[in-house]
Amino acid sequence: MTDQLEPMPEDWQRALAIVAHPDDLEYGCASAVAVWTDAGREVVYVMVTRGEAGIDTLEPVKAAAVREQEERASAAVVGVGRVEFLGHADGVVEYGTALRRDLAAAIRRHRPELVITLNPADTWQDTYWNTPDHRAVGRAVLDAAGDAGNRWIFPDAGGEPWDGVRWVAVAGSDSPTHAVDVTDGLERGVRSLLEHRAYIEALTDEDPEAYARGLIEGFARQEAERFGGRPAVTFRLFPR
């Protein structure tokens, strides 16, 4: 695909990134977050689960503590000081009103202009099957961005209605429309993923730094052809 990508909007101050697991944002998106926080923008992370089912060699209670600590450290690398965990069960997140309610409440709490989530499609690159958690959370985020602004939907969720979400940006989409030049955020994107060392070491026998650098730099440079030759993180942008 050679369609050129548009730059992401820059006329915003607050963003809320909502994903299923610790590490979801670090597989590329964190490099863009580093660029945004450098520019003085506020980004908050919300994890729907604590990632407790993600490490085969650690029982869930222990894995949850490790993965939460790794995510907080990872977020700090790219200038994010606030990370929330909603506590849904890892691996069995269900799309539905309970999830939409929790996400609408988070949006009302943080009042973002930009909401970021991960690919809710069935597949990655029309080849690899996406996980149920990613699909459920991505779809629920798209719905909750509207729910948050309607005072008659989830009135017991707390907070005043927030109808100020201007865009939802989906990372990891097979059909992106926009991109961020991550030249100045790429190294921190690599270091952010490296903070998930326990997860990476359980996932692969490859050297963690080689693994992280190969993925993050590879993804960013793969998109450069569609973005003026600049390393990029891509999004499918849905205006609201």
UniProtKB/TrEMBL annotation:
Pfam families: PIG-L. It comes from Nonomuraea aridisoli. One of its GO terms (molecular function) is hydrolase activity, acting on carbon-nitrogen (but not peptide) bonds, in linear amides. Keywords: Zinc. SUPFAM superfamilies: LmbE-like. This is PIG-L domain-containing protein. It comes from the Bacteria. One of its GO terms (biological process) is glycoside metabolic process. InterPro entries: GlcNAc_PI_deacetylase-related (IPR003737), LmbE-like_dom_sf (IPR024078).
